[in-house]
C-alpha cells in the first residue's frame, strides 16, 4: 500500500515552493521550526505526540473552510472547535478501504504516507493529507472523505438523498466537488502548503467510489492566504498566546 520511494515515483517531496507568498505585514506570525523533521515524525498521526504538539499551535487546512465561510466574529467556542477538534472515527477506519478500492481501479499507481506538512513561507499554517499518490512519475497528494451519511448509498444516490452533499452534478452530467464547499477550500490549502501539482480527491462509500483530480487555483489561494493570516493575527494568536501563558502558571 505504501512502498518505499523509487525512481518511478518522481518528486515525492511535499516541501516544494508554494505558488503564493505571504504579505510582509503577516511575516511576524511565522514560527521557527524544522518542517521536514516534523513531517517525517508525524506520518503515524494517531501515535504521534509530535503531531499533537505541532498541530496545537497551527491553523490546519481541514479548518480553512470554517474560517473563510464563518458568518460572524469568532468566539471562544468557535476557536476551541478549530484547535481542539473531535476525532472522526468512521472516516479514519475507512481510509484504507478507500485506498484499496482506488488501487483496484488504478493498479499502476501507489500511495506513500504523509505527515503534517508546514511550508517555510507560512509556518503558522499546516496541512495533513491522507497520503501522497504517485501516478506515472508524478507525485501529488490525496484527500479521502468517507461520509457516514452516504455510507449505504452510491454517489448518484447521495446527490439526491443527502442535503448539502459535497458533490454536485453539472449540466453535462459529470459530477464534481462543489467549488463553494469547505472541502475545496481544504484542498486548495493543502496544495498551497505542499506546493504539489494535484490533489486526488476521493469520496468513499460502501457501494461506490468517486475520484476527481483537483489542480491548484493560485487566484483562490492568494485571496485565501490573506484571510487566513488576518484571522490568525486577530483571533487565533491571542487565544494561543493566552493558553500558553496559563499553562506556565
TrEMBL record:
Coiled coil (UniProt feature): none
Family annotation (InterPro entries): NF-kappa-B_Signaling_Reg (IPR051703), PDDEXK-like_dom_sf (IPR011604), Restrct_endonuc-II-like (IPR011335), YqaJ_viral_recombinase (IPR019080)
GO aspect biological process, one term: DNA repair
For this protein, the record's CDD domains field holds:
PDDEXK_lambda_exonuclease-like
**Superkingdom of the organism of origin:** Eukaryota
Q: Name one Pfam family in it.
A: YqaJ
Name all YqaJ viral recombinase domain ranges: 51-197
Q: What is this protein called?
A: YqaJ viral recombinase domain-containing protein
Native species of this protein?
Pinctada imbricata (Atlantic pearl-oyster)
**Taxonomic path:** Eukaryota, Metazoa, Spiralia, Lophotrochozoa, Mollusca
Amino acid at each position: 500500500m505504501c512502498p518505499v520511494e523509487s525512481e518511478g515515483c518522481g518528486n515525492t517531496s511535499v516541501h516544494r515552493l508554494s505558488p503564493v507568498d505571504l504579505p510582509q505585514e503577516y511575516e511576524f506570525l511565522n514560527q521557527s521550526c524544522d518542517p521536514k523533521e516534523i513531517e517525517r515524525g508525524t506520518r503515524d498521526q494517531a501515535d504521534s505526540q509530535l503531531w499533537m504538539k505541532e498541530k496545537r499551535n497551527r491553523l490546519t487546512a481541514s479548518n480553512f473552510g470554517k474560517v473563510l465561510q464563518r458568518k460572524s466574529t469568532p468566539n471562544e467556542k468557535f476557536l476551541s472547535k478549530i484547535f481542539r477538534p473531535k476525532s472522526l472515527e468512521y472516516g479514519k477506519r475507512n481510509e484504507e478501504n478507500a485506498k484499496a478500492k482506488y488501487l483496484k481501479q488504478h493498479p499502476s499507481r501507489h500511495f506513500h504516507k504523509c505527515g503534517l506538512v508546514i511550508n517555510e513561507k507560512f509556518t503558522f499554517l499546516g496541512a495533513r493529507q491522507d497520503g501522497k499518490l504517485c501516478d506515472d512519475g508524478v507525485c501529488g497528494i490525496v484527500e479521502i472523505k468517507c461520509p457516514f451519511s452516504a455510507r449505504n448509498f452510491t454517489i448518484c444516490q447521495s446527490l439526491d438523498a443527502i442535503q448539502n452533499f459535497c458533490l454536485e452534478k453539472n449540466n453535462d452530467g459529470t459530477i464534481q466537488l462543489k467549488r463553494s464547499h469547505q472541502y475545496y477550500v481544504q484542498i486548495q490549502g493543502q496544495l498551497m502548503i505542499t506546493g504539489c501539482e494535484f490533489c486526488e480527491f476521493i469520496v468513499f462509500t460502501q457501494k461506490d467510489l468517486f475520484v476527481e483530480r483537483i489542480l491548484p487555483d493560485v487566484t483562490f489561494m492568494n485571496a485565501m492566504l490573506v484571510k487566513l493570516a488576518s484571522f490568525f493575527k486577530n483571533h487565533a494568536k491571542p487565544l494561543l498566546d493566552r493558553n500558553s501563558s496559563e499553562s506556565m502558571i
